[in-house]
Design a protein that fits this description.
- The protein is an alpha/beta fold.
- About 40% of the residues lie in helices and about 15% in strands.
- It is built from 13 helices and 13 strands.
- About 5% of the residues have low confidence.
- The structure holds flavin mononucleotide.
- The site of flavin mononucleotide has 21 residues, from helix 10.
Length: about 325
């Protein structure tokens, strides 16, 4: 059975990749994921605020960046598990890149234009096989329009692309008014891959104290639908690699993402829930599914259910599905 998959120009032994998390913040964690069967790991992100905390002179650099938030430093938490300092982060990356037989993809979460370019270069020098840019920009400024937001993303890609030679992917949120156009612009700017989608924090209000609170809930398979739709819409239209992210817990989600056209399938919550060895369960499950259904390889199913294989009129299909799902729903109480 041929499970090999190509991602960001790399040949992987299968498509299941461990995405960034506390499990990939240490050398031992990444080693455990390799032992557990991951075909590549994305190291936990290096946050520009981490660097700023280490280097107070850094503040001088950040005054003009479009992603810069002057007051952010005072909100930023101690990054306990992640906080090995910049040099520690780079050293962990260097060790893992040298010792592991699978590719180690570094992840960068910047705030300033200079930071993105400079730290991307440091991660490349430390041995990263590729770089995932984790963009987190909430456009709370009502004067900032969609074009400004999109332009700032494109600018990040351009500046990182100018400073490194390794492939870069972008881990995106789904909150663009025209996701497809944004993806195309990022490809034009030089992005080699997209990861669809990132999953953000869950802000809540504690009714006992009226304080804002932050909950981290692990994902469930109910979250695959949005990435599934966009991967199926984009996979034939873009040349870049597509990584599926969100809601993978069992082989079913892995297979569905590949059928939609993903090049790799990433997972974090399932590994935090079941442990690093769960990668092997997913890979064995994928292999079993291919055998049971008579497919000789992962390549044979990739994109088999993308938008070009589902009637060729995705806009009409999506609209019809929308209407059908709302009007065709029969409440259980009525059935009983
Ligand atoms: C505790 C935790 C830590 C994470 N740390 C990072 C990180 O450092 N960088 C990043 O890009 N994503 C990070 N993520 C997001 C995951 O990489 C992943 O994109 C997200 O959880 C969706 O995948 P899942 O549904 O398989 O969990 C983190 C997620 C969790 C739950």
């Amino acid at each position: 059975m041929d499970l090999t998959s190509a991602y960001l120009g790399m040949k992987l032994k299968h498509p299941v990749v461990a995405s960034a998390s506390p499990l990939t913040s240490t050398f031992d964690g990444m080693r455990r994921l390799e032992d557990g069967g991951a075909s590549a790991v994305v190291m936990a992100s290096l946050y520009e605020e981490q660097i700023r905390a280490e280097d107070s002179a850094y503040a001088l650099l950040t005054e003009h960046g479009s992603f810069s938030q002057a007051e952010a430093g005072s909100y930023f938490p101690e990054l306990h598990d992640y906080n090995q300092g910049v040099s520690g982060h780079l050293e962990t990356l260097r060790r893992a890149s040298e010792a592991l037989t699978i590719p180690v993809i570094a992840s960068l979460n910047g705030t300033s234009r200079e930071g993105w370019a400079e730290y991307a270069k440091l991660l490349e020098q430390a041995g990263a096989a590729a770089l995932e840019l984790n963009l987190f920009l909430v456009p709370v400024d009502l004067g900032m329009n969609g074009q400004d937001v999109e332009a700032s993303y494109v600018e990040v890609v351009r500046s990182v692309k100018e400073s490194v030679r390794i492939p870069i992917s972008l881990k995106l949120s789904p909150f663009f008014s025209a996701m497809g156009h944004m993806a195309l612009e990022l490809q034009k700017a030089g992005a080699d891959g997209l990861v669809l989608f990132n999953r953000f924090f869950q802000r809540d209000i504690d009714l006992a104290t009226l304080n804002l609170k932050l909950d981290v809930h692990l994902s469930t398979p109910a979250e695959i639908h949005l990435p599934l739709v966009w991967i199926s819409l984009l996979s034939q239209k873009l040349k870049l690699s597509l990584g599926a992210s969100r809601g993978v817990d069992s082989r079913e989600q892995v297979v569905k993402y590949l059928l939609a056209g993903a090049d790799v399938v990433m997972t974090t919550s399932a590994l935090l829930r079941h442990g690093p060895g769960h990668v092997r369960t997913l890979v064995n499950g994928l292999e079993g599914w291919l055998q049971e259904n008579g497919f000789p390889s992962v390549a044979a199913i990739r994109g088999l259910r993308d938008a070009t294989h589902t009637g060729g009129r995705p806009a009409e299909l999506l609209r019809a599905d929308y209407v059908k799902s709302l009007t065709g729903y029969v409440p259980k109480r009525l059935i009983a």
